[in-house]
Design goal:
about 210 residues, 6-stranded parallel sheet, 6 strands, binds flavin mononucleotide
Length: about 210
């Protein structure tokens, strides 16, 4: 059966820099015979978590919107590629809203002590693509931490980062052939079970 790769684009800009890198990574995954799916959060209606904590009792989110559809795709996927711009040193709001809604998965696992994925032992892996307009030492630190906890809640192994600095204008990433090439390569390597196996995510950071 083909490996299912889900790409989530969180940038509000259609064909923005992180979005274009994600598309390239998905093309790489497809070249490795994966079945790929792309979703763009700005096309969907996902409200922020209201901290009602009803999920602590039910394991389910009390708000019904497009989150449930995205959640089932995230739980079904073998691989996840999550793309975000850097906004104020972190993921953008669209990304954070989705991540916060995963609190129901956290409650399911850690409050109700139920296994998240039926058929445990599945090889589920995730990678991050992030693009910032400037360059600073700590630019990707918050992203690392946020994504680590997000992937943990999804029972996915965090295997790779593609971080790109100093790309600001919409679509400017097209003038960065190495970044596009690395996105394609990481997307294709993410599919195979024998590659990218390390405990810590591998980093590709470009300027
Ligand atoms: C609200 C906002 C906040 C931003 N914050 C940062 C930042 O903290 N550091 C940085 O280097 N670039 C920042 N940028 C620039 C974006 O990261 C940059 O334009 C990036 O290429 C956008 O990626 P996208 O085209 O995938 O949306 C910010 C842009 C916006 C609109």
């Amino acid at each position: 059966m083909a490996v299912k790769v889900l790409g989530i684009s969180s940038s509000p800009r259609l064909k923005g820099n992180s979005d274009l890198l994600l598309r390239e990574a998905l093309a790489g995954a497809e070249s490795a015979a994966a079945q790929v799916e792309y979703i763009r959060l700005s096309d969907l209606n996902i409200s922020p978590c209201v901290e009602c904590n009803s999920c602590y009792k039910t394991g389910k989110c009390g708000i019904e919107d497009d989150y449930q559809m995205v959640m089932s795709k995230m739980l079904d996927a073998d691989r996840l590629i999550f793309a975000t711009p850097i906004f104020f040193m972190n993921v953008c709001a669209q990304a954070k809203i989705l991540i916060d809604r995963c609190q129901c998965l956290w409650a399911h696992k850690y409050v109700l002590n139920k296994p998240l994925i039926t058929g445990s032992g599945r090889d589920r892996r995730a990678m991050v693509i992030a693009v910032g307009g400037t360059k600073s030492k700590k630019m990707f630190e918050s992203i690392r931490l946020t994504m680590k906890y997000y992937f943990d809640v999804l029972d996915m192994r965090y295997v790779a980062n593609l971080f790109v600095n100093k790309v600001d204008d919409c679509g400017e990433i097209k003038k960065h052939p190495l970044a596009m090439k690395e996105a394609y390569r990481l997307g294709s390597e993410l599919v195979a079970s024998e590659t990218l196996p390390s405990e810590k995510p591998i980093d590709v950071e470009l300027t």
